[in-house]
Amino acid sequence: MLDDKLLKYIESVASDSSTPGGGNVAGVINSLGCALMLMSLRIAVLKKDKRDPDALQTEKELESLKEKSLCLAREDSRIFSKVMKYWKEGGSSLHRAIKESAEVSLDISEAAFILVSIIEKQELNRFKNIITDVGIALELARAAYESGIMNFKINCAGLQEPSGRHLKEKEKIISAEFNKKFPALRNSVKKIIN
To answer: Is omega for the bond preceding 162 within 30 degrees of 0, making it cis?
Structure first.
């Protein structure tokens, strides 16, 4: 099922070009987490009841988040190209590009947090026969979250105060919430698996 487009994407990540890089991959893996959760929802819930209102709402949320994550992946590559363009020049153009890059990285982490929140709202026992796919979607969200935070922190290191202050405050809130929800949810999934 690995088609030429996916193989070409993997090869472009492996190339000697700086884009697509880690931020782009983070957005893509969050999108894959959404896709895997969509598959799980459609198999475990919507196949049995195509009119389940909660499942239909969750399906819409996951579709929207999947697309948003892909847009963030594209945006990360676009902005990082700007960072590289202005790197030698320095100055305000570079500063703006770094700030944009930090914002996109944080948006990727926030999208991953939203995916975790969507999974958390589910009645996990409904997914018993497909729980490993839910668990993998959860782990993809964690990887996207961590990747976004790493990129955010390296980008914020290049920002002068006060331009990065509100971003750092937002990161603290997202990180606190993510770190509160993720371990408990992971344990709930593992209990069903075991």
So the answer is: yes
Query: Mapped to the 3 state alphabet, what secondary structure does the chain carry?
Result: CCCHHHHHHHHHHCCCCCCCCHHHHHHHHHHHHHHHHHHHHHHHHHCCCCCCHHHHHHHHHHHHHHHHHHHHHHHHHHHHHHHHHHCCCCHHHHHHHHHHHHHHHHHHHHHHHHHHHHHHCCCHHHHHHHHHHHHHHHHHHHHHHHHHHHHHHHHHCCCCCCCCHHHHHHHHHHHHHHHHHHHHHHHHHHHHHC
Output phi, psi for 161, to 5 deg: -65, 150
* Pairwise CA distance, residues 27 & 7, whole Å: 17
At residue 43's C-alpha, the angle toward residues 51 and 64, to 5°, is: 70
Give 22-193's CATH code, choosing from 3.40.50.300, 3.30.565.10, 1.10.10.10, 1.20.120.680: 1.20.120.680
- The model's pTM is 0.94
- Residue 69 φ/ψ, nearest 5 degrees: -65, -40
Mind listing the pLDDT tens digit for each residue in 31-64?
999 999 999 999 999 999 999 999 999 999 999 9
| Residue partners of 34: CB distance under 8 A and separation at least 6 | 62, 63, 65, 66, 69, 115, 137
